[in-house]
Amino acid sequence: MSEHVLELQNLTMQFGGVVAVDDLSMYVDKGEIIALIGPNGAGKTTAFNMITGVYAPTNGAIFFNGEQIISNHPQGNMKKLYQGGSAGKFPNVMVKLPDVITKLGIARTFQNIRLFKDLTVFENVLIAKHMRSKAGVFAATFRLNAKEERAMRAETMRLLEILELADLRNETASNLPYGKQRRLEIARALATEPSLLLLDEPAAGMNPQETAELTAFIKQIRDDFKLTVFMIEHHMDLVMEISDRIYVLDFGKLIAAGTPDEVQNNQRVIDAYLGVADDA
Ligand SMILES: Nc1ncnc2c1ncn2[C@@H]1O[C@H](COP(=O)(O)OP(=O)(O)OP(=O)(O)O)[C@@H](O)[C@H]1O
């Protein structure tokens, strides 16, 4: 049994003959900010998609707080096609859908911002809150539980205040400046009360000023919400400043892991990635 908040064991994701993630093993500990980096197409988002139940891995297992939550081995046609490692190591099959993963306490944001663009800031966060509620969105829609609904509205307001979005609560999401949309996306993730927050390129499209603000913001929410943060990011300034440890993927394979100093000085990483990263 693992004691890590998140542990991936020999994860492989194969799309037909394409091995997107190849035998990836790694862990994230409580309170850490961990970055997953690598060139375009290295398999980073695919790794997030396996952790959050979007894809069932072709092989391997995922543990959350020491408990196995996902496990699989090549099945059907994939038995012949399989090119990853560690075949035969994971006999049991355990699959979970994204909403179940969310309820366990793992939340994520996406590379392309996914908000309800025509709804207000408040409504966007309130809907995310319902994801975690016992009564669910159905009950909320038909006002089946007025007391719970009131509590959720109050919690939504409190969250917006902490994240400095309260003044914008009645603004339509699509009218927000880009940096605030990203912040709202993170607010939506936090509304589901996660203990582990996955951020997929949170600084994508941001200018240096917005990136610097985001760096401080991620540290702040890690502390305020007692989170563990696992993020994919191309902005090396942000990654090097904020990360406790960094994992580097290249063509689906883990090529390095270590502190920012260790990774920056790793020749394999320099060859594979860092030389081009700042242009990304
Ligand atoms: N649903 C899918 N079907 C087929 N191939 C896929 C699918 N999703 C991802 N891939 C392939 O898997 C590989 C890894 O893609 P992925 O998006 O995980 O990389 P990435 O490291 O997140 O890249 P980027 O930094 O550009 O976002 C790529 O070759 C991609 O084309």
Descriptive notes:
This protein has eleven helices and ten strands. The protein has 280 residues and is of the alpha/beta class. It folds into two domains: 1-96 and 196-215 and 227-280, Rossmann fold; 106-193, Rossmann fold, CATH 3.40.50.300. The strands form two sheets. Strands 6-7-8-3-9-10 form a six-stranded mixed sheet, with helices on both faces. The protein has a four-stranded antiparallel sheet with strand order 2-1-4-5, covered by helices on one side. The longest helix has 17 residues, at 146-162. Bound molecules: adenosine-5'-triphosphate. Adenosine-5'-triphosphate is lined by residues 15, 18, 20, 38, 40-46, 111.
Strand order of the largest sheet: 6-7-8-3-9-10
Bound molecules: adenosine-5'-triphosphate
Model regions low in confidence, pLDDT < 50 over at least 5 residues = none
The average pLDDT value, as a whole number, equals 91
Q: Can you summarize the main beta sheet?
A: 6 strands, mixed
Backbone CA Rg:
19 Å
Termini Cα gap: 39 Å
Give the tally of structural domains: 2
The name of the CATH architecture of the largest domain is 3-Layer(aba) Sandwich
Order of helices and strands: EEEHEEHHEHHHHEHEHEEHH
* CATH topology tier name of the largest domain: Rossmann fold
Quickly count the helices.
Answer: 11
Number of strands: 10
Shape: globular
